[in-house]
Amino acid sequence: MPPLSALRPVIRAHRPSLRSRDTVLSNTLRVPISAYVVDCAVYVDGERLPGRWSHEEALAEVRLRDNAFVWIGLHEPAEEQITGIADVFGLHELAVEDAVHAHQRPKLERYDDMLFMVLKTVCYRGRPDPSAEHEIVETGEVMVFLGADFVITVRHGDHSSLREVRRTLESDPEQLALGPAAVLHAIADHVVDSYLDVTTAIEDDIEDMETQVFAPRSSVDSEQIYVMKREVLELRRAVVPLGAPVRKLTEGYSSLVPHDVRSYFRDVDDHLVTVTERIAGFNELLTTLIDAALAKITLRQNSDMRKITAYVAIISVPTMIAGLYGMNFDEMPGLHSPLGYPLTLIAIVATCLALFRVFRRNEWL
Questions:
Q1: Which domain does 336 fall in, by range?
Q2: Does residue 105 lie within any of the structural domains?
Q3: Considering Cα of 348, then 351, then 354, then 355, what sign does the dihedral take?
């Protein structure tokens, strides 16, 4: 490979003020850019060139070759660190600001000869538990800067790794030879496939909840259902806004995405529609389960009240009779008879048993 000093005129031809910006940058950076770079690779005709590259060297090498591009992966870079890469590659300052601060909605924006796309990543952490500290559906972000000869990915979140995506693409040089747009498609496809995995896990848990709600004599935790509904809404906010950007890519929104790659985005769009329909179904089903759980709780409370009322009615019989005979009157039925006391007890027991039988027949007890 030619030394970097021989390539600087080439870089200067594309970025006239690169030297002055690099001089200022070197005086302001405290943490090296390499600390935030997960991987930096140069691809020529779908094959990865060996060696380790800085972002300046990689760009210089790419612009000396045909059908080559550079892919740089960053993880949660600080503003001063990404500024060095932004100056070299000519990234728009608004897109750079979004990539640093994150918390963006899925979107696709065009800046001159560059595309900037934001995708929300999701990860399902397990069954809903109101006392759990972690979220059920954990979200992250992947930002993609797409140029004619470069792809820069910025990840936020611990679960949004693109290592497997890179490995899969490198094992398929024919696909990778389609250029940076093929990387964008692979990332979008990977993210949408993770949506499918998450919705499958949520579907299994919702089926378990449904069985629990409608099972006889089962305890129903409506708070657990509400937590699941809240997380489904969080998933919806990550998935639904991505539909418009993906459809733009299928319709020739930019020349950076060639016709050969647009057909792949149609497949991503189909999967995204499937996920969106699933989420809409989850939301309706969880609303129904909440109503059913509340109705079951109300029914159980009514049943408890009937039981309490029935027992109060039974207990009121001996209470009433004992109260009558305790009023200290001399002229009362059976008061002076030796059979008065046992007959009174028999009457109390018979009346209580009769009431118990009536309530039991009416399923109050």
A1: 299-361
A2: no
A3: negative
